Amino acid sequence: MVRRYDRRDKGSTDDRNRLHRVAHGITSLNRPRLLFYVQHLLGIGHLVRGSRLAKAMAAGPFDVTVVVGGTLPPRLDFGDAAIVCLPPVKAGPGGFADLVTPDGKVFGPEARDARRDQLLRHAETIKPDIVLIEAFPFGRRQMRFELLPLLEALQACAHPPLIAVSLRDILQENRKPSRDAETVALVQRYVDLVIVHGDPTLGTLGDSFPLAGEIADTIVYSGLVGPAPAEMPMTEPFDVIVSVGGGAVGASLLHAALAAKPLSRAASLSWLVLTGPNLPASDRLVDPSGVTLRTFEADLPARLRAATLSISQAGYNTVADLLSAPTCRAVLVPHAMTGETEQERRATLLERRGWAVVVDEATLDPARLAAGIDRALDLPPRETTFDFNGAAETARLLEQRWRQTDPVAP
After folding, report:
1. CB 397 within 8 A of CB 222
2. Can you give the pTM of this predicted structure?
3. Quick one: DSSP state of residue 266?
4. What is the distance between the alpha carbons of residues 93 and 150, in angstroms, rounded to a whole number?
5. CATH number belonging to the domain at 18-226+389-405, selected among 3.40.50.2000, 1.20.950.20, 3.65.10.20, 3.30.470.20
6. Span 150-203, pLDDT tens digits
């Protein structure tokens, strides 16, 4: 679809207080305004990828405001992007459809209405030229209460913004066919561009979304949103890195890894175990002997590039970080216990190419994990040609499409 845009007054160029500027609708001269909506509900993978995208887009052509709908972990770098926080929600005991506040209280209708109105006010204040929405309508269906009103309001503008979707490479499968059809209908109604953050030589959107052909004219590939080149020297290298992302569903892997250590050929190596900020208090680890235990690592990709072996799940960011560290062998234990298929598919793709050893989460125990560690240590270094500049390419794709459809773009 082709839309016309207006050139709005871009306001002040003073960058000393971006939050003040966003609150007053003031952005940098001649830079298109981009509103980036990111909602994480369980782990922090969506937010980490979102931070990499925001940093690249703000360093490039856009004046970026990130609207975050969950709790922000410390030390996450969004670069020059402004951050606006909605009242945070997360997945509750009933799963992703069960929204609760960070302290576990039900996020009911009144709270949803108030948050929806707040999001709409932010959009009205920012007056974006481009809106990038993470996952929806392919995912984040539980946020329909605010995202559908947002899309309706944007489309009703005298000069509607470019609407784009930020999408990871592999989607959750085993969904109801009617949901796929509904997703296609929403894309056709509201969305100009679907940016898939993957490499089509590894897999295409159609591999996990069977109706991708019906929206093929909107789909583009950015390449993997990988880590930036290492900037910090490794003054404290570790041979083995155990990580579980945010940690919300990683307890079984952490405990199995510690028990597998003395059973494996990596027993004498130096180990760093990262528990993640969302590990439940009931699963906290007591500092084990001979292992460095931390909650978070500021530059995990650099750690992996200096390591011999990684033991992890198979989330998007973890795998991107691993693929950018070709000499680090990998043991992947994809999270699949609650019907999730995304990580299992991604791990299988790597195992088929000889880039990782996969251990089934359903049968995970110390002996099986130790055997997987020993097999992984014998793997050759990975030789890949993937493009890890997906964040910068996303900025380029958005700017290109915006300039093509905006007759007065500067």
Report:
1. yes
2. 0.86
3. T
4. 28
5. 3.40.50.2000
6. 999 999 999 999 999 999 999 987 667 789 999 999 999 999 999 999 999 888
